[in-house]
Amino acid sequence: MTKIGSMATNSNLPSSDEKTPARPFRKAVLRGMGVVAPPLFTILIFLWVIISINEHVLDPVAGWVRDRVVWLNEDIRTDIDSLDSTVTLDGRKYRRMENGAFVPQEVYDLVEQEQGEEPMPTTGKDLYRRWVDLNKLPPWAAILLVLSLFILLLYLMGKFMAAGIGRFFWHRFESGIDQLPLIRNVYSSVKQVSDFLFTEREIEYTRVVAVEYPRKGIWSLGLVTGESMLDIRSAANEPVLSVLMPTSP
């Protein structure tokens, strides 16, 4: 009786052959993630690149260009010893700023008209920066100028690299990078991605040949891309070529 009871108890345990119940909700979520993840991460990566370039390249360079324009146009007088709000000097009217410097009245009026509800700048430098943004070099024009200069720089670098001396110096630079233990790993990974995205790949071939392919009696066109397969040539005891078949079987 004890044996029978033991057998009855064991029969209630799940068999090892029984499969775990399916989880349709989990499978559906994972399948949805597999569909959404590639385009989502692609968009996020491109947004990160655009934001990083704008924050670390375009904005600093545009600010540098704006400061150069301010330097060329600024007329900030700190040598006027007067407590009046406006003074006329050499036939030009000047307005006193909060820090005691004087700026041309027409510059101050232009910024005041376009400033809106924002507080007026308190220094001559800040006033001229705002004046340049409004009158000389709007932010969109500064970014357009920076992009144009950047594209011109890329063009000049491309022409320089096309020359033999450019390739020589670049190879020397990359050989120096290869000597740095940690940097070379990051540089090689970034270079693989950049080469994949920006390098133009052209098929180089010497001549066009006819190959009996994909089966006997059918001839297809092929492109001879190399003739230096010495190991296979010595094993076959006949000339061997590497041929690219531009079509599928």
- Unreliable residue stretches: 1-11
Using the CA coordinates, give the radius of gyration: 36 Å
Share of helical residues: 55-70%
Structural class by secondary-structure content: mainly alpha
Say how many strands there are.
6
> In what range is the share of β-strand residues?
5-15%
Number of helices: 8
One letter per element, helices H and strands E, the order comes to HHEEEHHHHHEEHE
Alpha-carbon distance between the termini? 73 Å
Q: What kind of sheet is the major sheet?
A: 3 strands, antiparallel
How would you describe the shape?
A: elongated
Instruction: Let me know the average pLDDT.
Output: 79
Biggest sheet: strand arrangement: 1-2-3
Written description of the protein model:
- The protein is elongated and about 100 Å long.
- Residues 1-11 have low confidence and may be disordered.
- The longest helix has 50 residues, at 24-73.
- It is built from 8 helices and 6 strands, in the order H-H-E-E-E-H-H-H-H-H-E-E-H-E.
- The termini are far apart.
- Helix 3 (105-115) packs across helix 4.
- Helices cover 59% and strands 12% of the residues.
- It is mainly α and 249 residues long.
- The chain has a 3-stranded antiparallel β-sheet with strand order 1-2-3.
